[in-house]
Amino acid sequence: MKGKWLGALVMMPFILFFAVFQLAPLVWMVINSFDSQSEGWGLANYRDIMTSPFYLQAIRFSFYITFFSSLYGLLIALIGSYSLRQLGESRLRTLVMSFTNMTSNFTGVPLAFAFVILLGANGCVTLMLRHLGLLEDFSLYSKYGLMLLYTYFQIPLGVLLIYPAFDALKPDWRESAALLGAGTLHYWRFIGLPVLAPALLGTFVILLANALGAYATLYALTNGNFNVIPIRISSLVAGDLYLDPNMASALGIFLVLVMAFITLIHKWMMRRSYTQVNS
């Protein structure tokens, strides 16, 4: 009993920290999200989010970039993880995994600066491709340019999450499938991908959450001129022309609900993955 009280006492600073910096702001956001500057208390802020073309465009752009960057990042990470598995125990695999660990944290202003140097309007790669006649209408600051940026920082995280999932594939399964006359395509269609499916879906959900909440890189690159949900929240809290922290709270709660839903899906997918691996 004494040990439990001692453990609870040691945990008190962490509990207080969590309450002050996580729960208190969330409660404040929930309360203020129902307070509209024009109509007072009610659902006016949420009604504006669901009916305003401007906010609906921000939601649409956020979901579009998030979905496709997560999908492309997942596919590239899957191919990369499989290739690393094929290398076996080697220095190259260790080097690539170490590099992946490092680049998974390469986000924010440094990443935006790197992309401006490479693919900006006067970036070195942009000028070289234009000189070769291979790149005419591409803009880093467009929807497709931002999708490329998002995909880049999704790949390392995808590799780190997918790579351990290949442990679920037993080497003798492939040998048994080959003895039964199954080719590579049949093996991956009926054995490999079904076994990896829960982990792939779980990784995809995490990549969705990772991209949906991204802010620093996008703001540093566009200076807040691209209409997505995190930028809209920032402009309502610290903008130069129009401030409405209550609407920002409503947008924040909307984002929290979406990410909570994504997290629940991820938990369910990972539970299925662990159950299948252990069976």
TrEMBL record:
All copies of domain ABC transmembrane type-1, residue ranges: 59-266
Name recorded for this polypeptide: Putative spermidine/putrescine transport system permease protein
GO terms for cellular component: plasma membrane
GO biological process, one term: transmembrane transport
UniProt KW Cell inner membrane keyword: yes
Membrane-spanning parts: 7-31, 61-84, 105-129, 149-166, 187-209, 247-265
Subcellular location: Cell inner membrane; Cell membrane
InterPro entries: MetI-like, MetI-like_sf
Keywords carried by this UniProt record: Cell inner membrane, Cell membrane, Membrane, Transmembrane, Transmembrane helix, Transport
Similarity field: Belongs to the binding-protein-dependent transport system permease family. CysTW subfamily.
Lineage start: Bacteria, Pseudomonadati, Pseudomonadota, Gammaproteobacteria, Enterobacterales
Membrane topology: Multi-pass membrane protein
Main location: membrane
